[in-house]
Write a structure and sequence with these properties.
single chain; mainly alpha; two-stranded antiparallel ribbon; 2 strands; 3% strand; elongated
Length: 184
Amino acid sequence: MLGMGRPTQNSAGALSRLDSRKTHLKSICLQYQLYLLLNSHFFCLLKNEMGLIIFFLCAYVPKTVAGHCKWAEVLKDLEQIKTSKDIDVSLYTANTDEGKECQEPVMRCFFLETEVILQECLIKNCSKTQDVWNIWKNGNASLEKNKLNSKTSAKCKECEEYEEKNFTEFIQSFVKVIQKECKH
């Protein structure tokens, strides 16, 4: 009878691995069934004219939903802080009507000035510090991604060349610039 019994140690681990393999196998079977179902319906759609029209409309119509704008989160946070009463700073405020070639420097200016707001909030312990931090972090992350493709025109102003405005006017201009960017 030696060697006939099942080992008791590690049996829990073996059962766990067996359950894991069964779950993985079920997952693969489900994925394959979904693949077959979608594949057959997709090709049925392409067999008639209406299906082809729907396919091309879905594939080639550009998305114009504002939620797909890379600045959507920044816009939400700007809405959160625009009524803040505990932020009192003067900020260089870029013009909202700058040409397309100056759009990136204008955005950079707004985000540079957001850092000033953030410092002010950290000093005064503002109620909107987290929202300001989010604007600064999300904006700089998006601008960093575009840094390689950026070409600044010589006619674009430096941030310090713009007029200083109060916090409310700064936020209103910032919102306009973001909305303009989202439309492009």
